[in-house]
Amino acid sequence: MAFESKIRPIYWENGISKMLDQTIIPYEYKYVDITSGQQMFDAIRNMIVRGAPAIGIAGAQGIVLYAQEGVNNFSNIDKFKNWLMEKTDYMATSRPTAVNLMWACEEQKKIIKNSTSNIEGLIKELTEKAIEIEKDDIERCKKIGDYGAEVVPKGATILTHCNAGALATGGYGTALGVVRSAYAKDNTIKVFADETRPRQQGARLTTFELVMDKIPVTLITDGMCSYFMNKGMIDMVVVGADRIAANGDTANKIGTYTVAIAAKYHNIPFYIAAPLSTIDISIKSGKEIPIEERSHEEVTHINGKRICAEGVNIINPGFDVTPHELIAGIITEKGILRPDYNKSIVDVFKG
Hints:
By secondary structure, the protein is α/β, with parallel strands linked by helices. The chain has helices at residues 37-45, 52-70, 77-91, 99-114, 119-149, 175-185, 201-212, 225-230, 256-265, 297-300, 341-350, and strands spanning 10-13, 16-20, 31-34, 157-160, 190-194, 217-220, 236-239, 243-245, 250-253, 270-273, 279-280, 301-302, 305-306, 319-322, 329-332, 335-337.
């Protein structure tokens, strides 16, 4: 049984992308209209939309926006396709770590390459694909939620890091999809959300979602997880993912690796929840995953106010990689993958 979230972070309507501005939550709940390809590129880069599956949806819609812009500049379908291929490759560079973006852009490139339609027909095909990716993501997340709920003990308290909920997907969530599905079966389920510095996605977004859906949530700071694990107050950890290597190594928001180490020490199961589109079988291990270096101001400032001395050195990786040895299972829409991940990942892609 699926828990229906009220949140829809991104959708296509009348030739434009309607996007919930996640940079202003929880202060405002406002949709913005994304009407051009460059606007979409900037929205992804600036994290108006964020979360690997949602970024993929946004990228697919961004290709449609580029196509709509180019329709008046080309009469030759081959030249139009070549131009659009270049724009699709450009869109894929807006965030380098989340593989769902590259996957969605590749899906649109298949349409561009294989279409036998005229320019207007091609745009229609790209639009249909973008809408399909959005709807398909919601269904995938509900399946992830249902599989994940099977391993949630009755009355469990689940710790999650960053936001892998409706706001990070088409509207249901991966890690929070597990929470929603588990809560639909057992309303004694509770959540601990850590704040997730430096952009506070746990504090700003995860708590916002769960309060809206009336699921009990407690906010803790990033450094508190070991304390509560030691007290026996956390039963399992479920987080999302931005890219999973063929051996199960998983890139997720910075700080995830720290949580996984603490969970291992305290014998608490640590799960990844992600669609198969997040698994990149082209890379053997997490060492090959590119890690995005983000603005230093994310660390030096909170809500626009400086919190440290001028002149301090800053390093701000947006993600870290959790080694597969720390992961109890990867919850996907096809079931829960278990170690040895080199085998279980290959098997699930074989079908």
